[in-house]
Amino acid sequence: MVQILGINGAIRRGSTAERALAFVSRRLEAEGARCSTFDIGQLPLLDGRPPEAYPPTVGEWQAACRAADGLVVAVPSYHGAIPGGLKNALDFIDAPEAAGKPFMVIAVAGGDAEPGGTDVTRVLRHIGGIAGVPDVVISRAGERWGRGDAPADPEVSEAIERAVAVLLRLVRLRAEGRLWVP
Q1: CATH classification number, 3-175, choose in 3.30.870.10, 3.40.50.360, 1.20.120.530, 3.10.20.30
Q2: Could you give the CA distance from residue 51 to residue 90 in angstroms, rounded to a whole number?
């Protein structure tokens, strides 16, 4: 059974990003994956101190990333970019936690969701992650996702289904040793 780690870039409870991540996790579990999440809101700011000087949550975050076969990142765009808390969390991981690891991005925003998704993809690819494109971009989330636990727009549901299939295919190829691992 593959292990997928869900990362919610919007630390506000009940956000559209959180609901989208939960929806994607249910779809992944329906396909046989085991999903977990990590609350990045509990991480301190990365400030350059020695690794042993950080609280245990940093090591727990890194261990959760290392243990996962793939990552799903739900990212809201704030002012046209990745939220600071998510960037901070990603700065705590590097090649040991992400290199060769497939990932999927769900970008969500009330306006244009693409910038935050692009930021996350760039950061994860920089440390060796393998993008499970196509990303799911949910711009105008108020109308395209709505207030519920599932997308209001059938095109969003279809995009999620395609992205879930690609992510699982990449994770399985990696497990079979047929996907590049640095």
Answers
A1: 3.40.50.360
A2: 15
Helix H or strand E encompassing 77: none
How do the pLDDT tens digits run along the chain, 182 residues long?
Answer: 999 999 999 988 889 999 999 999 999 999 999 999 999 999 999 999 999 999 999 999 999 999 999 999 999 988 889 999 999 999 999 999 999 999 999 999 999 999 999 999 999 999 999 998 789 999 999 999 999 999 999 999 999 999 999 999 999 999 999 987 77
Rounded CA separation 38/41 (Å): 9
List Cβ neighbours of 47 (8 Å cut-off, separation of 6 or more): none
Q: Which residues pair with 8 in a beta bridge?
A: 74
